[in-house]
Each structure stands twice: as C-alpha cells, then as structure tokens.
Automatic annotation (TrEMBL):
Residues 1-87 form the GST N-terminal domain. Pfam families: GST_C, GST_N. It comes from the Bacteria. This is Thiol:disulfide oxidoreductase. It comes from Motiliproteus coralliicola. PROSITE patterns: GST_CTER, GST_NTER. Belongs to the GST superfamily. Residues 90-214 form the GST C-terminal domain.
Length: 232
C-alpha cells in the first residue's frame, strides 16, 4: 500500500498517473496547499521542503520498515524501480528517460509554473515577466515537439518521462500556447489524454478540484514563503 500525500496540481497528477498505470494499491491523503496543510508537522516529517506530493511506501519489500519519498521526480524513479516498469534498465534507454524527466523537472515545470503565476496569480500585471515566461514555455514546447518527431512517446517507449511531462501541458491554453503550433506534441498529448490510467488519475482529482482554486489567503501562503516565515 502506498500512502500518497496529494493535491490536484501537475506534480500531484504525475504520481496518480504512475500509480494507476502500474495498478498499485494507494490511498490519497489530501494536502490542501491553500489552507496551509503543507506546513503541518506530520507532513513536514516526510516532505521537509513543504511541497506535495510525497509518499509513504508501507511495504517497500518483505519485512522492511516503511519508506517515505518526497519530490515528484524522486517518487517516479522510486516507484519505477520498485515495480520494474516505465524506466528501462538498458544503459542508453534509461539515460534518455532520465534526461527527459530532468528536462521536465528543471525546465518545463519551473518555467510553466512561473508562466501560471504571472499570467493567473500575480496581483498586478507585469508585462515583462509575462512575455518572458510565455516565450520560454513556447520554446520548451518546441523542444518537446522536435523530440517527439517520429516517436509515439518522449523517450521512444512509454515511460515516467511522459507521465511527468503531460500534466504540465494540460493547461496549455492558460499558458498561452496553441497545440496546433506543435503537431508532434499535439499527437502525443491526445494519446496521453486518452490512456485509461490518465483518465482515471484525473477522475481521482474530482473531490478536490473545486477546492483547488487559490483563495487570496491561499496566495499569501503559497507566494509569501521565506525561511523566516516557514520557521514559525
């Protein structure tokens, strides 16, 4: 059994997609990031960066103690290695999957995240920041489109790289991107969207999706964090 500490954000969806694809038993513990659940002591014990998702694997292997993992990329690698699925063991194929996983973690996620912030959440319009992050998101979409030329999946075979990347493209319209500009990405996006495990993963988000809208108080919690604030 996997305990998943979750909220319906792109990083949260990554993990439910894997769990559904692999058919693992799991239970969701919602972490309402607009209400400050990420700062509670029991959550910080497994996720010291006060970010979701995080997991506790209650049965990592026969007879051993539970294992906790935080950071979405680390969770995907852990689960892939646990199950022997969606991360190749052959040197070059594994290298490629990890490259594109890190591309999402270090590139698409942070840049699209800043895009979301300045387009949707900033208290005042900052045209320079909007242009900067919308353009960088566009560049990254172009990189992904080129990688997908002649391929069904990002690294050739379906993998954790696809699971990590897809949730960050779901809100492409909010990111001011048009999928018609990226035909290979669009084809891949539609294939991902239609996978039964992806459909189920997003259905699992339904109980919390309405609550996921960020309130003004939630913005203070999410965007006003400093080391001093977090130490209180």
């Amino acid at each position: 059994m996997i305990d998943l500490y979750y909220w319906p954000t792109p990083n949260g969806h990554k993990i439910t997609i894997f769990l559904e694809e692999a058919g693992l038993d799991y239970r969701i513990h919602p972490v309402d990031i607009s209400a400050g659940d990420q700062f509670k002591a029991d959550f910080l014990a497994i996720s010291p960066n006060n970010r979701m998702p995080a997991i506790i694997d209650r049965s990592p292997d026969e007879g051993s103690e539970p294992v906790s993992v935080f950071e979405s990329g680390a969770i995907l690698i852990y689960l892939a290695e646990k199950t022997g699925r969606y991360l190749p063991t052959e040197l070059r194929a594994r290298k490629t999957v990890l490259e594109w996983l890190m591309w999402q973690i270090g590139g698409l996620g942070p840049m699209a995240g800043q895009n979301h912030h300045f387009v949707q959440y900033a208290p005042e319009s900052v045209p320079y920041a909007i242009e900067r992050y919308v353009n960088e998101t566009n560049r990254l979409y172009g990189v992904l489109d080129k990688q997908l030329e002649g391929k069904d999946w990002i690294a050739g075979e379906y993998s954790i790289a696809d699971m990590a990347t897809y949730p960050w493209t779901v809100n492409h319209q909010g990111q001011r991107q048009q999928l018609d500009d990226f035909p290979n990405l669009k084809r891949w996006f539609e294939a991902m969207r239609q996978r039964p495990a992806v459909i189920t993963a997003y259905e699992k988000a339904a109980p919390w999706s309405q609550r996921a809208a960020v309130t003004e108080e939630g913005k203070k919690l999410l965007f006003g964090q400093t080391a001093k604030v977090n130490s209180r």
